[in-house]
């Protein structure tokens, strides 16, 4: 693959195993590792900027998830360092539409990944490619889920605002590869062309659109929502409130 250096965490039996690889143009220091995590700081040898890169393999065992995610929240916190957490196999999906198949989606399921993201101030990257990153058979039926994703903090986005997760093609494995790209490809130079386009939004209209949403507007929207519509992130329908 062209990488001359690496760091490995051996699998437990036939499961797990983590690897981090890099070439001579990068300097990497692994700060912590376990069967679920490789946490490192990385810099280009031509730069003085250090960034944090954390690879995560979330436990797949339901009985161990609370312990694992409790440890994650104890070990990691928000940081001012530019941080990429993933693309990793978190073994958790966030939204209901990120899972399809006969297996039931529980509305009252624990929100371990969301809680971790809130605790660490990490944001999910947009993605290109198939909507699901894992597929497997459960009780004789195909189930697909988005278990892999890239998470970054605002400091990372301040330098690489176009960062995107690319969902690759599944080849000989039940997960698709995740590639994190920091720049857009095929960017166009519009020059002065946009100066010829008359804006359709006035300054006054823009100020109205950019204004903060008031509590009264939130209240009106909430009370206009049907009581039996789709549940919110907490799993409850509007009639509950």
How would you summarize this macromolecular structure in one to three sentences?
It contains five helices and 14 strands. With 241 residues, the protein is an alpha+beta fold.
Helices and strands in order, then pairings?
Elements: E1 5-9, E2 18-22, E3 26-33, E4 37-44, E5 51-56, H1 65-75, E6 83-89, E7 99-100, H2 112-120, E8 123-124, E9 127-128, E10 134-138, E11 141-145, E12 148-152, H3 154-159, E13 164-167, E14 178-181, H4 203-210, H5 215-224
Helix pairs in contact: 1-2
Textual characterization of the structure:
It is a single chain. The chain is α+β, with helices and mostly antiparallel strands and 241 residues long. It folds into two domains: 5-181, 4-Layer Sandwich (Deoxyribonuclease I, Chain A); 193-240, no CATH class. The protein is 18% helix and 28% strand. The chain has five helices and 14 strands. It has helices spanning 65-75, 112-120, 154-159, 203-210, 215-224, and strands at 5-9, 18-22, 26-33, 37-44, 51-56, 83-89, 99-100, 123-124, 127-128, 134-138, 141-145, 148-152, 164-167, 178-181. A six-stranded mixed β-sheet has the order 3-4-5-6-12-8. The protein has a three-stranded antiparallel β-sheet with strand order 7-11-10, with no helix packed on it. Strand 10 and strand 11 form a beta hairpin. The longest helix has 11 residues, at 65-75. The protein is globular.
């Amino acid at each position: 693959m062209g990488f001359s250096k690496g760091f490995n965490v051996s699998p437990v039996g036939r499961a797990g195993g983590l690897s981090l690889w890099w070439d001579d143009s990068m300097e990497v220091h692994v700060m912590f590792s376990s069967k679920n995590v490789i946490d490192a700081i990385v810099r280009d040898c031509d730069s003085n900027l250090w960034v944090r890169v954390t690879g995560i393999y979330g436990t797949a065992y339901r009985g161990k998830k609370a312990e694992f995610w409790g440890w994650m929240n104890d070990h990691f916190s928000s940081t001012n360092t530019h941080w990429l957490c993933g693309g990793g196999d978190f073994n958790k999906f966030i939204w209901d539409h990120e899972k399809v198949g006969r297996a039931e989606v529980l509305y009252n399921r624990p929100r371990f990944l969301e809680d971790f993201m809130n605790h660490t101030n990490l944001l999910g990257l947009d993605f290109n490619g198939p909507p699901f990153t894992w597929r497997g058979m459960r009780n004789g039926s195909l189930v697909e889920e988005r278990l892999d994703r890239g998470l970054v903090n605002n400091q990372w986005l301040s330098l690489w605002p176009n960062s995107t997760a690319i969902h690759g093609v599944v080849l000989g494995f039940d997960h698709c590869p995740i590639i994190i790209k920091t720049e857009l490809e095929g960017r166009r130079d519009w020059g002065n062309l946009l100066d010829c386009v008359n804006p359709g939004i006035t300054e006054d209209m823009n100020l109205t659109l950019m204004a903060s949403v008031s509590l009264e507007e939130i209240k009106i929207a909430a009370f206009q929502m049907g009581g039996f519509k789709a549940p919110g992130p907490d799993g409850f329908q509007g009639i509950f409130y």
